[in-house]
Design a protein that fits this description.
189 residues, elongated, 11% strand, 35% helix
């Protein structure tokens, strides 16, 4: 009778707690899916048309909780400016962030030369470019760009038209500040 004793050396020993696999949630994958936009969103003409990801529709508390958990595991992660501002306690709700974006769209959308660019960095809300400032008389390769930011409470930065090294963004004091300086920003052609 064969008892299989010759196989004794090949049978793995029982796991002890120190050998147990450590399973951690795949927060980076979950966060990536949370900010993922459908392909159709890439044709958005305004920020409101771009709001198709889970972070835009899910309960705000759930979005904030997943963002904080994901950011805690991986350091800085891609996210909309308004979510970073909410997480830092600078903005009360994403609806406030949406209002800022929508007011910029109401100001720039009808003005000649301004175009909304929906394909910003992962998780971001898009930005506005002043196309006449690109390759105009001044010859700049990169147009004047208006983008949202969580860097300051005005929520708006303007990146001047440029060629070569990227200049520091100009902080703008909210929509009123943008409206009052548009003539200066649009003068670069």
């Amino acid at each position: 009778m064969d008892t299989g004793q010759e196989l004794g050396g090949t049978i793995p020993r029982a796991r002890v707690e120190d050998d147990a696999p450590r399973l951690e949630p795949m927060l980076d994958l979950e966060w990536s899916r949370a900010i993922e936009l459908p392909q159709a969103a890439m044709t958005a003409a305004t920020p409101s048309e771009l709001r198709r990801a889970w972070v835009h529709r899910a309960p705000q508390d759930s979005v904030l909780a997943l963002f904080r958990a994901s950011a805690g595991m991986a350091g800085q992660i891609p996210a909309p400016w308004w979510l970073r501002a909410m997480a830092d306690g600078k903005l009360d709700s994403r609806e406030q962030g949406f209002r800022v974006e929508d007011r910029i769209a109401q100001l720039l959308g009808p003005r000649p030369g301004w175009e909304f660019v929906p394909w910003a960095a992962d998780g971001e809300s898009g930005y506005w470019e002043f196309m006449p400032s690109e390759r105009g008389k001044s010859g700049h390769a990169i147009p004047t760009t208006v983008m949202n930011t969580d860097r300051h409470p005005g929520w708006i930065d303007v990146l001047p038209a440029h060629t070569g090294r990227t200049p520091d963004p100009i902080p703008v004091a909210g929509l009123a500040g943008l409206r009052s300086r548009l003539g200066v920003f649009e003068a670069v052609r």
